[in-house]
Design a protein that fits this description.
CATH class of the largest domain in chain B: Mainly Alpha
Radius of gyration of chain A: 36 Å
Number of domains of chain B: 2
Number of helices of chain A: 17
Helix content of chain B: 55-70%
Radius of gyration of chain B: 18 Å
Number of helices of chain B: 11
CATH superfamily of the largest domain in chain B: Winged helix-like DNA-binding domain superfamily/Winged helix DNA-binding domain
Largest sheet of chain A: 13 strands, parallel
CATH topology of the largest domain in chain B: Arc Repressor Mutant, subunit A
Shape of chain B: elongated
Shape of chain A: elongated
Oligomer: heterodimer
Strand content of chain A: 15-25%
Helix content of chain A: 40-55%
């Protein structure tokens, strides 16, 4: 790579009694850039020439002076540079939170555009029934105003606009924060509900809406103790230890806290995460709760359904519709207007219980039905079977087949595009980013391709995108597998060793999916791998930065007979 | 030479940095933080010397580290990390100056016209003798972009002539010319009048 220097260095003032070295020769000599023979000549010359010796020495001192002047720390490191590392970390976290937010938006938009209309049609045709999950999560207003505001096209248009703005700003101001800024801006635009509703924010040890108060619009309450004794004509968002609703909330109650007491009335839904929800008053729609216990007191009433993931549900009062429960125990002494779907340890039915819909219970023991209890139909009991027992010979065979299928598929991809496979595996190391992006791409591209097909924007484009999407979704497991394999057997840049690691990883993933709730692992792996592939693709299509110049090895410096310092000092 | 240049690390430092870099490449955020804390001061000083203002240097330092983070997997681990780091920094700063059109066009076309002279050595000796580091830094600020960048690359980052040629986009054979011309400019700035450099440059 390096070639010997070819400066036409020469001695100066030819014809005079003493020929002096020119400045260039001196500098190149000091910096060891002269060829050996020339360096020897210079060295010999300086033995007898005072002028050149002084020049050489002066130039060497000049070099030292320069280095010293540049190395001196005359000013401290600016604060913003010292804090930069922390800031980048934080800003990136925001970016991925926003990406998650957008993904959720896309999911919701897909529901609004496709699933809900179908559901309504089915319901009209008499096939509706109680589709509890969709009823609880979607049909009621989780966020008010979304249904009227968001359409799929709007979401996609905004996402596209965000993408363009990001690309533009990144080039212009070259700040990672621009990405966060744009996305946050769009999210903020999403989140603002269309009608101009006043929003109250109250904080403090005790955050309350007093008895004589009536608030129009949503209220955000945070504090150790939260009390709503007055009227809120909107939603209540509450975060605190104890949350008590004694007054009237016309919208939803969305809360995070230890205990929720509803003694008053909530016309909308109660969505809560915490320790316990106690309904002594009235809830107009549904209760969905992730926590320990839900209890509907004998005076309490919930007109909708109860969906809960947690430990216990106790119904002593009246529940208008269904129970969907995964956890430990359901106890019914009151009235359930709809069905009960339980997957848990026990179902206890009291003698005063009345259940108007079907009861499906998957658990350890078949529940006893006391004589006084009124059930619309007998309990459909399924003995809980541990997944491990299910893995019989047949399923083990199919699991094996799937491992081989994925391994072969991965091997094919890794052999066709070895460098891209390596890049994707590398990108998968960034777990948070991959998962977030994977979620977005999974739903975004799916919706986009369907839209292209349905709206005839481009049948070909739609199907091609869908095809690529399917390839990528199936490639997700090999990519994540390769990373897992690398974690176990160490990193490699060779193709075949990487394939070996991929096969090991795929085997482990497939085994993990056989565990109880293995589908969650499968889904996470799909998002993770898909995100990694998308990240690798994104990096590929980034404009080449000037830093991508390959490393040039330092020149094999020509040997000089003397070190620069020695050369000067010897004079 | 008693002052250790940032471009040169001893064997122990190289091994330690190598280990940190390897961890950072594997996605270890903590290692990345270490890398940043270790090298940010040197890169900031590099930018401070190469760019016209302090604000530019601060911006550039952060941008360089963003690039380093993105491109870490392109780093050839068999080479010294600092060399690669300074290459990235040099390319970034030079690109920044180019985008702002601070680089002067005249700098590109008169490379081959530097006459070979033997200046008065005593005069140069006296000039160097009298100057302090601070005066040299002030003089550096007055230089043209390329002259200053060349001096920074050579005498701060300890880059080889090949690396300098690559970073500045000149032929390797002219790196010496660029450096010597930069020294002349510096002497002129130090003197105020340019009597020292006149003999050589004109």
């Amino acid at each position: 790579m390096s070639s010997p220097p070819n400066y036409q260095s020469s001695s100066h003032q030819k014809g005079e009694a003493q020929e002096h070295l020119d400045e260039m020769t001196c500098m190149l000599y000091l910096e060891r850039q002269l060829e050996r023979t020339r360096a020897l000549e210079v060295s010999a010359h300086t033995q007898g020439c005072d002028s050149c010796r002084i020049l050489l020495r002066a130039m060497e001192r000049e070099s030292r002076l320069l280095t010293r002047a540049m190395l001196e720390e005359e000013e401290p490191l600016p604060g913003r540079i010292a804090a930069f590392q922390e800031r980048v970390h934080r800003s990136m976290q925001w970016v991925w939170m926003v990406v998650f937010g957008l993904s959720a938006t896309a999911v919701y938009a897909m529901y609004i555009a496709y699933i809900e209309p179908w559901e309504q049609r089915l319901e009209t045709a008499g096939f509706g029934g109680t589709n509890l999950v969709s009823l609880l999560i979607f049909q009621s207003a989780f966020w008010k105003g979304w249904q009227s505001m968001i359409s799929l096209v709007e979401v996609l248009a905004l996402l596209t606009a965000a993408g363009i703005a990001m690309a533009f700003l990144r080039r212009r101001i070259r700040r990672g924060s621009a990405v966060a800024l744009v996305l946050t801006g769009f999210c903020a635009a999403f989140a603002v509900p269309p009608p101009a509703v006043a929003t109250e924010v109250r904080k403090g040890q005790i955050a309350e809406v007093r008895k004589d108060e009536s608030i129009k619009g949503n209220v955000y309450l945070s504090g150790e103790h939260i009390e709503v004794e007055g009227t809120v004509d909107g939603d209540v968002y509450a975060a605190g230890k104890d949350i008590e609703i004694d007054g009237h909330v016309t919208g939803d109650l969305i809360s995070v806290g230890r205990t929720v007491w509803i003694r008053g009335q909530v016309d909308g839904n109660v969505r809560s995460v915490g320790n316990a929800v106690n309904v002594i008053g009235k809830v107009g729609k549904n209760v969905s709760f992730f926590g320990d216990t839900t209890r509907i007191d004998e005076k309490g009433a919930v007109d909708g359904s109860v969906m809960m993931f947690g430990s216990d549900v106790t119904i002593e009062g009246r529940l208008g519709r269904d129970v969907l429960f995964m956890g430990d125990r359901v106890t019914v002494h009151g009235t359930v207007g709809g069905s009960i779907d339980e997957k848990g340890a026990a179902l206890e039915i009291g003698s005063t219980a009345q259940i108007d819909g079907p009861i499906r219970f998957e658990g350890e023991n078949e529940p006893a039905v006391p004589s006084g209890a009124k059930l619309a139909s007998p309990i459909q009991f399924t003995k809980h079977v541990h997944k491990r027992e299910e893995v019989g010979r047949t399923s083990a065979f199919w699991a094996g087949v799937l491992v081989v299928a994925f391994a072969v598929y991965g091997m094919m991809l890794f052999l066709v595009t070895p460098s891209f496979a390596r890049e994707s595996t590398h990108a998968a190391e960034n777990i948070g980013a991959s998962l977030g992006l994977g979620l977005l791409v999974f739903f975004g591209v799916l919706i986009g391709s369907f839209l292209a097909i349905v709206t005839l924007v481009g049948l070909f484009v739609g199907f091609s995108t869908l095809f690529v999407w399917i390839i990528a979704v199936y490639a997700a497991q090999p990519v994540v597998g390769a990373l897992l394999g690398q974690w176990i057997l160490g990193r490699t840049n060779e193709t075949w060793p990487l394939i070996g690691r991929m096969i090991l990883g795929v085997f482990l993933i497939r085994m993990a999916t056989l565990l109880p709730h293995g589908w969650v692992i499968k889904l996470a792996v799909v998002f993770w791998g898909l995100g990694a592939i998308s990240l690798a693709l994104y990096r590929r299509f980034q404009p080449p930065a000037p830093v991508q110049v390959p490393y040039v090895p330092p020149p094999s410096a020509p040997l000089t007979p003397l070190t620069p310092a020695g050369g000067a000092a010897a004079v | 030479m008693d002052v250790q240049k940032p471009g040169r690390m001893n064997a122990v430092e190289t091994r330690e940095s190598g280990a940190i870099v390897a961890r950072a490449r594997a996605g270890d955020a903590e290692a990345w933080g270490e890398l940043y804390r270790e090298f940010a001061p040197a890169i900031f000083r590099f930018c401070r010397r190469a760019l016209p203002t302090r604000e530019d240097a601060e911006d550039a330092t952060m941008e360089i580290f963003m690039k380093i983070r993105d491109k870490l997997d392109q780093y050839d681990a068999t080479r010294p990390f600092t060399s690669w780091l300074y290459r990235v920094a040099a390319n970034h700063c030079w690109d920044m100056l180019r985008r702002r059109k601070i680089r002067q066009d005249k700098e590109t076309d008169d490379l081959e016209t530097l006459p070979l002279e033997h200046p008065d050595p005593n005069q140069l000796d006296q000039l160097i003798e009298k100057r302090t580091s601070e005066e040299v830094r002030k003089a550096l600020d007055k230089l043209g972009s390329r002259a200053r960048m060349a001096l920074v690359l050579r005498y701060y980052s300890d880059m080889s002539y090949d690396e300098i040629a690559d970073s500045l986009g000149v032929r390797r054979a002219f790196v010496g010319v660029v450096l010597l011309r930069a020294r002349h400019e510096l002497r002129q700035a130090l003197e105020g009048t340019g009597t020292m450099a006149a003999g050589a440059a004109r």
